[in-house]
Amino acid sequence: MSLEQLTETVRGKVAGGGIDESVKFDLGETGKIFVQGANVSNEDADADCTITMSPEDLSEMLAGDLNPTAAFMGGKLKVDGDMSVAMKLGSIV
């Protein structure tokens, strides 16, 4: 899935109103997805929580094929910043 497709998928997930805090998905060379509330962009802004993972793993997580907790425990995603913000993502992914 391309950065644009992933961004649109995330945008659809938070359209009803995401979480108040800001989250950045760092997808390495593919790019970044910045989320705050229902606003989604590809800017590389400072966020309350940064989640580093591969685009493929994010795609699987958004599709419901990869459990976020299992991904974290298995080393497929890394969390920098406020862990409580990352926990809130379960309500949107």
Low-confidence stretches: none
Give the SSE string: HEEEEHHEH
Give the N-to-C terminal Cα separation: 16 Å
Helix content: 25-40%
Structural classification:
alpha+beta
Beta content = 15-25%
| Strands ordered across the widest β-sheet | 3-2-1-4-5
- Record field, number of beta strands: 5
* Global shape: globular
CA-based gyration radius: 12 Å
The biggest sheet, with number of strands, parallel, antiparallel or mixed sense and barrel status, is: 5 strands, mixed
Number of helices: 4
User: What is the average per-residue confidence, as pLDDT, rounded to a whole number?
Assistant: 92
Describe the structure.
Helix content is 34%, strand content 25%. It is built from 4 helices and 5 strands. Strands 3-2-1-4-5 form a 5-stranded mixed sheet. The model has no long low-confidence stretch (mean pLDDT 92).
SSE order and pairing:
Elements: H1 3-14, E1 22-26, E2 32-36, E3 39-41, E4 49-53, H2 55-62, H3 68-73, E5 77-81, H4 83-88
Parallel strand pairs: 1-4
Antiparallel strand pairs: 1-2, 2-3, 4-5
Short description:
The protein is built from four helices and five strands. The protein is of the alpha+beta class and 93 residues long. A five-stranded mixed beta sheet has the order 3-2-1-4-5.
List keywords for this structure.
single chain, 93 residues, alpha+beta, five-stranded mixed sheet, 4 helices, 5 strands
